[in-house]
Write a structure and sequence with these properties.
2 domains, Rossmann fold, about 400 residues, eight-stranded mixed sheet, BirA Bifunctional Protein, domain 2, elongated, 16 helices
């Protein structure tokens, strides 16, 4: 017997007993997102590496440390680490800018990042998210946040905290970046290696650092004064104020977090996270924001856009377990040929049924039926000759005999 091959570290099998939870989350996503007018899109899990280095940003941990990249036929190819860049690429390539605005898309599927596996996060993980193109007004930001909240509530999460912030536009953000760098520069040698790299390339990402020593430095009064300064230009400030009015009118409780910058380079103006109190320190279940420059950055026309993504593993870890649905019936018979005919007859009528394929003893078949089905459909010699079926309710233990033609009505 050969050596057993095991699953790669950071990946997991989704076993049959767990799939019901996944179906539940996916069904909720489809129902809620469709109700808001979002249409599903499915993009490839492999893309050219340039899509992510240009789109996600070469100062991010994703691009610098976490992407699965390989060479094939003189091309650099990457397993997608996130899906916004892929959706934007598809939006441009397929001429969706010609469609009436807003263009509203949603997706679900696996993503890949090489990072330390932890609770609710794997190296192959799954995300569900939405993207909206073509609306620059804060009403789009508000609807995307509302969509996320409604979806999370639909899967049973109510202990939610919405945090928002505005990163401003490239114009007003430039001055803020310089002020931030000036006040942090005296402590530069004390920062972690990542922060020292980010200092020149993308100083806003400094605020996203989780290293304790760096957090202590950023908590210093003079740095906090700059962080909490009002650097937004009038247009960005009006956008942010209007967003808050929309959220107030929609009765969405939120708090403002000046340290919220998100981990991707493409965000402008609105950024937000939705957190759950049941996840401990890593408590974000949804993150998103506005990325008005990304379509143009990837070769399209200037197009305002906003969206969010959330990890499905984290969601599922917070939802009470849902039991797998039982079959409508399990056929108990020692005549496999007749059981096959009955099974196909009932399946063609829309029932979910299974039969014993190994011609086991009746007692063994009934034992299996009690674990997987609502009814045992007993097909013995007498039932076959009389064109009837003995039906046992496996919950109550009651048993009766019905005409074969009436079995559908009886079970329904």
């Amino acid at each position: 017997m050969g050596k057993i091959i095991k699953v790669l570290k950071g990946t997991k099998d989704i076993l049959p007993q767990d799939v019901t939870m996944w179906h539940f989350v996916e069904d909720c996503a489809r129902k809620v997102f469709n109700s808001y007018g979002f249409n599903e899109i499915r993009t490839p899990i492999i893309e050219v590496t340039e899509l992510f280095s240009r789109g996600v940003g070469d100062t991010t941990d994703i691009v610098n440390k976490e992407m699965y990249t390989f060479e094939k036929s003189d091309r650099s190819i990457t397993l997608r680490p996130e899906n916004t860049a892929g959706v934007v690429r598809s939006y441009i390539e397929n001429g969706m800018s010609r469609l009436s605005s807003p263009v509203k898309l949603w997706y679900k599927g696996p993503m890949f990042r090489y990072e330390r596996p932890q609770a609710g996060r794997q190296r192959q993980f799954h995300q569900v998210g939405v993207e909206m193109f073509g609306i620059s007004q804060p009403s789009a930001d508000a609807e995307v946040i509302l969509t996320a909240v409604d979806f999370l509530k639909s899967v049973g999460l109510n202990d939610l905290e919405v945090e928002i912030n505005s990163l401003g536009c490239p114009k007003c953000r430039a001055e803020f970046k310089e002020k931030l760098k000036n006040v942090i520069r005296p402590y530069l040698n004390d920062l972690c290696e990542d922060c020292q790299t980010r200092f020149d390339k993308n100083p806003l990402r400094l605020l996203d650092c989780k290293v304790e020593e760096c957090q202590k430095i950023y908590a210093k009064p003079e740095i906090q004064t700059v962080i909490h300064s009002d650097f937004l230009c009038e247009e960005c400030k009006n956008h942010y104020d209007e967003l808050k009015k929309y959220l107030d009118n929609l009765k969405i409780k939120y708090s403002e977090n000046k340290l919220l910058v998100r981990g991707l380079d493409y965000y402008t103006r609105t950024v937000f996270e939705i957190k759950s109190n049941n996840l401990g320190s890593q408590n974000a279940v949804c993150g998103g924001g506005r990325y008005d420059g990304l379509v143009e950055q990837l070769g399209g026309e200037h197009t305002p856009a906003v969206g969010f993504a959330m990890g499905m593993e984290r969601l599922i870890s917070l939802i009470p377990e849902i039991k797998n649905e039982l079959l409508d019936g399990y056929i108990v018979s020692n005549s496999t040929a007749e059981a096959f005919l009955l099974a196909q007859e009932l399946r063609n009528k829309g029932l979910n049924v299974e039969l014993d394929l190994a011609n086991k003893k009746f007692t063994k078949q009934l034992e299996k039926a009690s674990k997987v089905a609502k009814y045992a459909l007993i097909l013995g010699e007498d039932e076959i000759s009389q064109n009837k079926i003995s039906v046992k309710n496996l919950k109550t233990g009651e048993q009766t005999t019905v005409n074969r033609a009436e079995i559908l009505n009886y079970i329904n």
